Amino acid sequence: MTKTVKILIIMGALLMISLLCGCHGNVKVSGITSFSYRFTTGNMVNADVFYGLEYKNGNYTATVKPNGEPEQNAKKIKVDKSFEENLRAILEKYKVSKWNGFNKTNKMVLDGNSFYLDIYMEEGDISAHGYMSWPNGYADFKDEVTVLFESIQ
Asked: Cα dist. 76→11, 55, 86, 143 in Å?
């Protein structure tokens, strides 16, 4: 094997490693300014759940759109800083910062479920999306976020 071929193989391997690891890296979980989480529960109309949190003008507002309800029936509820702290604790518990850049699709499934998670924080953002593919710890994360948001209704 020539020296040029060896160099090309090494460069190709390094490129593959950088692509697989991604450029996103971990983001430090910090004060949440916007949390947007939607997951589908089927393929019928309004078969999805939405949980949101917005921080504006010193106030937190949570949004809950239950499964089977149209968007216009979503409830907006004023919450305090402890709600944001509880949500942040869930993000830290399930290491959601490691999900940043997760974007996987199982194209073998036609009528499956998906999730969309976008979080904006004081010190960075987290974006993760999937269709019939989920990051590690997703099911428990989903359950705990659901309990937290359902507790304020």
From this structure: 52, 13, 18, 20
Q: Which fold has domain 26-150?
A: Mago nashi protein (3.30.1560)
Residue written as token pair 């997951």: 39
3-state SS record for the chain = CCHHHHHHHHHHHHHHHHHHHCCCCCCCCCCEEEEEEEEECCCCCCCEEEEEEEEECCEEEEEEECCCCCHHHCEEEEECHHHHHHHHHHHHHCCHHHHCCCEEECCCCCCCCEEEEEEEECCEEEEEEEECCCCCCHHHHHHHHHHHHHCCC
**Is the model more confident about 153 or about 64?**
64
Lowest average pLDDT, out of 32-36, 48-52, 108-112, goes to 108-112
The pLDDT, as a whole number, for residue 99 is 97
Q: Say if residues 75 and 153 touch (Cβ distance below 8 Å).
A: yes
pLDDT tens sequence across 39-98: 999 888 999 999 999 999 999 999 999 999 999 999 999 999 999 999 999 999 999 999
